[in-house]
Amino acid sequence: CLSNTREALLDDIWQWIKHPDDSDGARIFCLTGVAGSGKSAIAHTVAQRCSEEGLLASSFFFSRDVAERNNPGKLLSTMARDLARDPRIREHISVLLESDQSLATASLSRQFGPLIQEPCVRFLSETPRVAVIDGLDE
């Protein structure tokens, strides 16, 4: 976002990230709006700030115009790759894929638990982490 734009909304999102217990247990922040209203700019700003603060688990920005970013199948593999920056998660995913090679090409519903949910719960639960996903409607 450009400086001094959407500051109130960005502050609300940042408070939700930094104080998850104050948000009535809501673990998903869904930003909606009409096309062109700045949702992607906000998502990029949130991802950048989370990265700077060491809170970004992963980000994925769908785009109907870019082949590698308009495939839902790329979402979880990208998230798993990003999560694997943590050596503990890298080892976890490596062991999983060695023991079950079919997991690499499995359905998203089959991949989510072992590649995303389980490592996050097991290794990242001490600090809130953020996954930014933009353009689900692309």
TrEMBL record:
<dbReference type="Pfam" id="PF24883">
    <property type="entry name" value="NPHP3_N"/>
</dbReference>
<keyword id="KW-0677">Repeat</keyword>
<feature type="domain" description="Nephrocystin 3-like N-terminal">
    <location>
        <begin position="5"/>
        <end position="138"/>
    </location>
</feature>
<protein>
    <recommendedName>
        <fullName>Nephrocystin 3-like N-terminal domain-containing protein</fullName>
    </recommendedName>
</protein>
<dbReference type="InterPro" id="IPR056884">
    <property type="entry name" value="NPHP3-like_N"/>
</dbReference>
<dbReference type="InterPro" id="IPR027417">
    <property type="entry name" value="P-loop_NTPase"/>
</dbReference>
